[in-house]
Amino acid sequence: MASETTLVLVKPDGVRRALCGEIVSRFERRGYELRGVRLLKVSRALSREHYAEHVERPFFGELVTFITSGPVLALAVRGENAILGVRSMIGATHPADSAPGTIRGDFATLLSENIVHGSDSKASAKRELSLFFPDGLL
Q1: Which of 7, 19, 127 is nearest to 71 (CA)?
Q2: pTM: predicted TM-score of the whole model, two decimal places
Q3: Which 3 state secondary structure label does DSSP give 126?
Q4: CA distance 26 to 62
Q5: pLDDT digits 0-9 by tens, 76-107
Q6: C-alpha–C-alpha distance, residues 14 and 12, integer Å
Q7: Containing H/E element for 65?
Q8: What domains does the chain contain, in order, with CATH numbers?
Q9: Rounded to 5 degrees, what are φ and ψ at 90?
Q10: Catalytic site residues?
Q11: How does pLDDT run across 17-57, given as a tens digit for each residue?
Q12: How far is CA 95 from the centre of its chain?
């Protein structure tokens, strides 16, 4: 397996509930390395780029409204097989389908506010990392 870097966003609900430290700790305890960290307010333009693949879906407006509703913690997480490993730690998109021990299984209750985002492929990770870390990573 090769080392790879993926994007994780602690969404506004996770930041508001003071879960950033817990989430970062989980990745670090698993052995992943933080290559970049940014706390930012996502603009509407950035949110539309980030969620571009969902633009035709009926929930697109809700995604944009939610991700721009408060600060987001963007993490560039690096390690062996990080994309798949991080997504398994995050849990299923719908909190009701997320196993206990996953981030969403332990903390999320609503599909519309499911605490975190994680890139789902190498192509998505590359595109998303360039959006949230436009100056590059260490």
Answers
A1: 19
A2: 0.94
A3: helix
A4: 28
A5: 999 999 999 999 999 999 999 999 999 999 99
A6: 5
A7: helix 60-67
A8: 3-132 (3.30.70.141)
A9: -70, -45
A10: 117
A11: 999 999 999 999 999 999 999 999 999 999 999 999 999 99
A12: 15
